[in-house]
Design brief:
Order of helices and strands: EEHHEHHHHHHHHHHEHHHHHEEH
Radius of gyration: 21 Å
Number of helices: 18
Strand order of the largest sheet: 1-2
Helix content: 55-70%
Shape: globular
Largest sheet: 2 strands, antiparallel
Length: about 450
């Protein structure tokens, strides 16, 4: 068995059936957040927004493209990015120039065109990293910066976990308890699929509760299969080609600043989780290229921006199976589901409370990885310099819940809290004296 510490790096030793189940677990982990993006964008475009089926296809294909660009070394799953939601909302309400009189559906391809340009901006940063070297770049991103950013990634997601769980706390607690029990006391295969077991156990509980007439906190039914009944068994996703307009590009492209900073934090989190330095090998420039091309490809055919998913990083930490092949299986599942609307509808019927209960531990795990990243790199918080940097990052990342908005020309632009936290951390680390960090490539 190819292991490093207590982690399994070669899942083949588990056998194909177990690998298939592990891939299914990763697919479930990403599913809720990934399909939520097109659902939200549809609300901005009044029902004429992104397709769930296209989104699933782009998540799977984007993940495979990312793995190709990173030499199949990085166990990362790419799902829909929430960072661009503000940009979609802005484009949806454009009503001047060529957008005057357009339907919401006619505006959508221009929003995707802006996302494509944003994805290509990743390639520029990748070129900079490749040209000047990852050591020089990472001098601006030491653990005292990336650690608190990773912590913020988890904590900024925490409210959504509570919001989902609060729809039915008993069901959410069943999901949470199941994950904890299987991850700590589970035996054999059950110990490495705690997320999947948590979903199955809590879904069984939801069926029983629904049959007993129990309801969610707002009085709605715990299970709703209306989406399943209205879905076809098989169907080709509604692909379309994006279009370009300067106004839409200005609204969408600057958001790449946020997503690129989050990318560095996510790759740092994955590296800390699996004890391998992916910033050095295959290299930060390759992970940026993979993420950027995945986003550009998705936008080209009518999908949302892609980004590395913290939920799947948490699954790595819980299962301790770090083989990228398992992630690629999840990607294949997503692609297959994109052509089976009926099956996607069944999975979409998963109650919000279950998603909240599962997310309760997943999002906390992301923040815990950030703490671990700082501890393992021996970040000295007795130094005022480090305390100032960490404190400012945490306050910016958690305090600016609505981001920081400003206007470029006549188009409003919003920097997300994570992008703002990253910028503040990088600037403070660069100007404050006493930066002794040396990036190790091994």
């Amino acid at each position: 068995m190819n292991e490093n510490g207590s982690g399994i790096y070669n899942a083949k030793v588990l056998g194909l059936p177990r690998m298939l189940i592990l891939g299914l677990q990763h697919m479930f982990a990403m599913f809720g957040a990934t399909i939520l993006v097109p659902i939200l964008v549809n609300s901005y475009f009044h029902g004429e927004g992104l397709s769930v089926q296209v989104t699933l296809f782009c998540a799977g294909a984007g993940t495979l493209l990312f793995h190709l660009m990173t030499k199949f070394k990085v166990p990362a799953f790419l799902g829909s990015s929430f960072a661009f939601l503000g940009g979609f909302a802005t484009v949806a309400e454009l009503d001047s120039g060529i957008f005057a009189g357009m339907s919401y559906g006619e505006k959508l391809p221009y929003a995707c065109g802006g996302v494509l340009v944003a994805g290509l901006l990743y390639l520029i940063l990748a070129l900079i990293v490749k040209t000047i070297g990852v050591k020089r770049v990472m001098r601006f991103l030491p653990p005292v910066v990336t650690g608190p950013i990773i912590i913020c990634i988890g904590l900024t997601l925490a409210p959504s976990a509570i919001s989902n769980a609060s729809t039915c706390w008993p069901l959410a607690l069943i999901a949470l308890a199941s994950v904890i029990i299987f991850s700590i006391w589970g035996k054999g295969m059950l110990k490495i699929i705690p997320i999947l077991m948590g979903i199955l156990v809590s879904y069984a509980a939801a069926i029983i509760m629904n049959a007993a007439g129990l309801t969610c906190a707002d009085g709605s039914a715990i299970l709703n299969f209306s989406g399943v009944a209205n879905s076809a068994v098989l169907g080709v996703p509604d692909f379309f080609l994006c279009k370009f307009n300067v106004t839409a590009i200005v609204a969408m492209a600057p958001i790449a600043i946020a997503s690129m900073m989050e990318h560095v934090g996510d790759v740092s989190a994955i590296s800390a989780t699996v004890n391998q330095n992916f910033l050095a090998d295959p290299g930060l420039h390759r992970t940026l290229i993979g993420d950027g091309l995945a986003t550009a490809f998705s936008a080209l055919i009518g999908g949302p921006a892609n980004t590395t998913y913290g939920e799947n990083t948490s699954v790595l930490a819980l299962s301790r199976v770090y083989d990228p092949r398992v992630i690629r299986l999840a990607a294949f599942y997503a692609i297959i589901l994109s052509f089976i609307p009926k099956m996607a509808g069944i999975i979409s019927s998963l109650p919000s409370a279950i998603i909240g209960g599962i997310s309760f531990i997943l999002y906390g795990m992301i923040s815990a990885v950030g703490v671990r990243n700082m501890a393992e790199n021996k970040v000295d918080l007795t130094k005022s310099r480090n305390l100032v940097i960490a404190a400012c990052i945490l306050v910016c990342g958690l305090g600016f819940s609505n981001g920081l908005s400003f206007t470029i020309g006549q188009t409003p632009v919003t920097l997300t809290s994570l992008a703002l936290a990253a910028i503040v951390g990088i600037v403070l680390n660069a100007i404050l004296p006493g930066n002794e960090y040396r990036f190790e490539e091994n």
